[in-house]
Write a structure and sequence with these properties.
By secondary structure, the protein is mainly alpha-helical. The chain contains two helices and no strands. It has a domain at about 1-45.
């Protein structure tokens, strides 16, 4: 599903790569693949929610 992205002209290769990456992030956000924090948009299933709520916090960080 990748397509060729042609970015604006830049002074150097590093800047050109940054501009193309920014454009790719904008397009992924528009498609809903990234949320407003540019993290992958993943909806939790009821199973994931219930397993998270059943995790005990006692002894957290102690490796118990």
């Amino acid at each position: 599903m990748f397509q060729l992205l042609v970015g604006p002209k830049a002074r150097n290769m590093q800047k050109a790569k940054q501009l193309v990456c920014l454009d790719a992030c904008k397009r992924l956000h528009q498609l809903g693949a990234l949320d407003d924090h540019l993290s992958p948009s993943v909806e939790e299933t009821p199973l994931e929610i219930s397993s998270k709520s059943s995790i005990s916090t006692s002894g957290a960080g102690l490796g118990i």
